[in-house]
Amino acid sequence: MTLVGDLGSALGIPIATYPSTCNLVNQWTTTCGSGPSKDISYIWTVPATGSYRFSTINSSFDTVLEIRNYNNTSQVLGCNDDEPGSLQSRVSLSNLTRGTRLLITIEGYEFNECGATTLNIARN
Ligand SMILES: [Ca+2]
């Protein structure tokens, strides 16, 4: 299991860092092109209905970021490999409903790519 924590409804740049995903396992396969690689996941609850952006800026490696509905993990809300000009990832989601729980997963783009992760969450 790669789930690391429940972030509640907090916002922050960063909101969570993790020193190395290299000792974790590969649980999820993302829908935006990553190969099998170790992943780290967080639960986050939408604090107020609106639009939010999630990013992995300042992570130490080429990340992929995917966001699912925690209560129905087959429902992928967003996935990104590279934001423009970066190897890090950014997903913006609009019309999120207060109280919805999201599963936020960060993994490496290349096979087994891993390292230090930074997760940022801000309101748009
Ligand atoms: Ca990337």
Structural commentary:
- By secondary structure, the chain is an all-beta fold.
- It has one domain: Jelly Rolls (Sandwich).
- It is built from no helices and nine strands.
- The chain has strands at residues 3-6, 12-18, 39-45, 50-55, 63-69, 72-80, 90-96, 101-108, 117-123.
- Strands 1-3-8-5-6 form a five-stranded mixed sheet, with no helix packed on it. Strands 2-9-4-7 form a four-stranded antiparallel sheet, with no helix packed on it.
- The N and C termini lie far apart (31 Å).
- The model has no long low-confidence stretch (mean pLDDT 95).
- Calcium ion (CA) binds at residues 62-64, 81-82, 87, 89, 109.
Features of the shown structure:
mainly beta; Jelly Rolls; 5-stranded mixed β-sheet; 124 residues; single chain
Which CATH architecture?
A: Sandwich
| Rounded average pLDDT | 95
Annotation field: number of helices: 0
Outline the low-pLDDT stretches. none
- What ligand species are in this complex? calcium ion
